[in-house]
Design a protein that fits this description.
alpha+beta; 2 domains; five-stranded mixed barrel; 5 strands
């Protein structure tokens, strides 16, 4: 394209006149379609642009240990594991909290996989339970409920 315009690639990057004179049709061929050429021309106009959507940043609440948790606290969390009885959510205290399937949404949830990966959780109780979701003294998780969609 640059050669056909009588310039170097740098000229296409810096001079919009060169870019506007380019007719992509002669370059359409086997393996290179019009959409690809349009993308190339867009990239020449804005080099280095990332076409992906902006990433949403995530940060945990200022809670550092399970002892800091209090019933009723609102905490952002990321789902780390989904089971038939609920989802385990990382709330930033080095131990995941459990959200029972009945607490995942304000509607009936048949499949815990459908709730998404980021949740806003409310700490419900400061009692441990084991991996099967049964209350017990030797458990390693905190009981949570989801307060609203992310």
């Amino acid at each position: 394209m640059a050669k056909d315009q009588g310039c170097f690639v740098e000229g296409l990057l810096t001079d919009s006149e060169h870019r506007h004179r380019i007719d992509p049709e002669p370059y359409v061929g086997e393996g290179v379609g019009r959409p690809t050429l349009d993308d190339i021309l867009d990239e020449l106009a804005r080099p280095g642009r990332d076409p992906r959507p902006e990433l949403e940043t995530f940060s945990f609440a200022d809670v550092h240990s399970i002892d800091d948790l209090r019933s009723g606290m609102l905490l952002p969390g990321i789902v780390t594991n989904v089971t038939a009885f609920g989802a385990f959510v990382d709330i930033g205290v080095h131990q995941d909290g459990l959200v029972y399937v009945s607490q995942l949404a304000d509607r009936l949830v048949k499949d815990p996989n459908e709730v998404g990966s980021r949740r806003r959780c409310r700490a419900e109780a400061n009692r441990p339970f084991n991996e099967e979701g049964v209350d017990g003294n030797s458990g390693c998780h905190y009981l949570l409920s989801v307060t609203s969609p992310p």
